[in-house]
Design a protein that fits this description.
By secondary structure, this protein is an alpha/beta fold. 51% of the residues lie in helices and 16% in strands. The protein is globular.
């Protein structure tokens, strides 16, 4: 079955309960076999109504994580408070697009600059983004490629070092 993946700490600060709430609403309003896969630390309460469609895997081996990204429909990063998002970069490097929260300036900026995904601010936008990814698999795949190019063009070690050197030279 197709699935959305969430990777990271499962706690209130990461807005995980919004993801679970919206996923529950999606399952209630739509006949879909879509699943939600959660990886990473932390414990959360999953509503009985969606327990059969949510797989909380906890910590998994790194290669398994990359394989999970690669096979997903997309990564959802619902946090509103990121200064960077390693999991967004990982998803892109695995060729998958991302869905981020509009309220996070950093991840929204990454999505806009890379054309590597979409963003949402409410349930209807969340559902619309899922529909878009599901109905436009070729465009979703291209978004994943775009994101990977963005990571390679902006965050490879030598590029980051050169940015620091340029910054210090300007000082």
């Amino acid at each position: 079955d197709p699935y959305i993946i969430y990777a990271g700490r499962k706690d209130v600060g990461k807005n995980i309960y919004t993801l679970l709430k919206y996923f529950g609403e999606l399952k209630k309003r739509n006949k879909t076999n879509l699943k939600l896969v959660l990886i990473g630390g932390g414990e959360i309460d999953i509503a009985e109504s969606i327990k059969e469609d949510v797989y909380d895997l906890g910590y998994i081996e790194q290669q398994d994580k990359y394989d999970a990204y690669s096979a997903s429909l997309f990564l959802c990063q619902p946090s509103k408070h990121e200064s960077f998002s390693y999991v967004v970069m990982e998803s892109w490097l695995c060729g998958r697009p991302v869905l981020v929260h509009e309220g996070c300036e950093v991840t929204k900026d990454f999505v806009l600059r890379s054309n590597g995904g979409l963003y949402f601010s409410n349930y209807l936008e969340f559902e619309g983004c899922i529909d878009y990814f599901s109905q436009h698999m070729d465009i979703a795949a291209q978004m994943g490629v775009n994101g990977a190019c963005f990571v390679k063009d902006n965050f490879k070690w030598d590029i980051v070092i050169n940015k620091y050197i340029d910054f210090f030279k300007k000082l």
